[in-house]
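Anyone up for a design puzzle?
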C-alpha cells in the first residue's frame, strides 16, 4: 500500500476542494473566490490535509514554498454542457501531476453510466501508474447515468466497493443520510478510507455539521469540502467547525 501520511493527520483527511470551475463553470464563484490565490491563501490556516485543483490552477497559482498544504490534482474533468450519460476523460497524466508537485491524484468514476467501462479502464491504469511512482489515488465514486436512477445508500455502498475492488487508496462518496446506512458503506470499503463530499452550498450550517458528525460516527475518515467553505462569509470559521468534528 502507498503512504497516505502526506495527505492525512492521525489517519484522517480534510481536503479543500476547488475543482468546480471546470465541472460547473463560473456559477459557483464571486469576485473574491474566483481568484485561486484566495483559495490557496485559505490553506495557510493549517486546517486542511490537502487542496484539490485541476492542473491549470496548480501550474499557475500553487507555490510549494508558500503553500505548505499538500497538492492533490484531479486528473479528469468535463463541462456541464453535454446532456447525456456522463463521461469524464483523463486530461492530466500522473507524471505531469507529480511534476507540478502533487502529493496525490484524484479521478471521478460515474458508476452506472453507459460510459462506465471507459472510466474504469482509465482509472485502473492511473492507479497502476500512481502506485508505481509511489503516490496515492483518490476515487470520486459517483453513481450517475440513465441506468442508476435515484442514488440509494445501497448504490452508494456499491460505488464505494467498486473503488476498493479496482485498487483506489481513498474513496469520496456522498453521505447517505444516516449513520447506520453509512456504516454499511464503510464496511463495503474494507480497510480503504472513506471520505464524504461536502456538496452544494447549504444555508443550514447545522446540516453540514450533522452530516460530518454522522459520517465520522459511522467510521468515515474525513471529507472534501469546497463551496460550503469558500462560499461562506467566514470560510475559516466554517472550516474550523468541520476540522474539529473530523479530528476531535
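Challenge accepted. My sequence:
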Amino acid at each position: 500500500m502507498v503512504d497516505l501520511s502526506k495527505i492525512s493527520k492521525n489517519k484522517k483527511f480534510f481536503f479543500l476542494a476547488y475543482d468546480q470551475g471546470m465541472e460547473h463553470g463560473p456559477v459557483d464563484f464571486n469576485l473574491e473566490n474566483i481568484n485561486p490565490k484566495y483559495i490557496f491563501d485559505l490553506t495557510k490556516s493549517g486546517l486542511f490535509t490537502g487542496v484539490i485543483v485541476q492542473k491549470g490552477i496548480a501550474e499557475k497559482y500553487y507555490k510549494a514554498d508558500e503553500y505548505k498544504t499538500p497538492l492533490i490534482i484531479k486528473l479528469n474533468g468535463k463541462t456541464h454542457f453535454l446532456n447525456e450519460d456522463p463521461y469524464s476523460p483523463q486530461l492530466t497524466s500522473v507524471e505531469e501531476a507529480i511534476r507540478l508537485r502533487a502529493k496525490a491524484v484524484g479521478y471521478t468514476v460515474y458508476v452506472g453510466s453507459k460510459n462506465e467501462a471507459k472510466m474504469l479502464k482509465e482509472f485502473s491504469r492511473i492507479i497502476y501508474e500512481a502506485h508505481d511512482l509511489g503516490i496515492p489515488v483518490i476515487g470520486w465514486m459517483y453513481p450517475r447515468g440513465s441506468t442508476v436512477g435515484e442514488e440509494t445508500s445501497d448504490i452508494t455502498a456499491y460505488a464505494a466497493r467498486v473503488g476498493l475492488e479496482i485498487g483506489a487508496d481513498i474513496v469520496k462518496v456522498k453521505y447517505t443520510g444516516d449513520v447506520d446506512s453509512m456504516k454499511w458503506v464503510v464496511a463495503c470499503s474494507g480497510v480503504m478510507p472513506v471520505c464524504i463530499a461536502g456538496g452544494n452550498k447549504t444555508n443550514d450550517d447545522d446540516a453540514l455539521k450533522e452530516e460530518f458528525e454522522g459520517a465520522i460516527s459511522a467510521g468515515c475518515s474525513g471529507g472534501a469540502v469546497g463551496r460550503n467553505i469558500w462560499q461562506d462569509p467566514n470560510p475559516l470559521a466554517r472550516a474550523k467547525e468541520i476540522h474539529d468534528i473530523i479530528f476531535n
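A detail worth pointing out: The first helix runs from residue 20 to 24.
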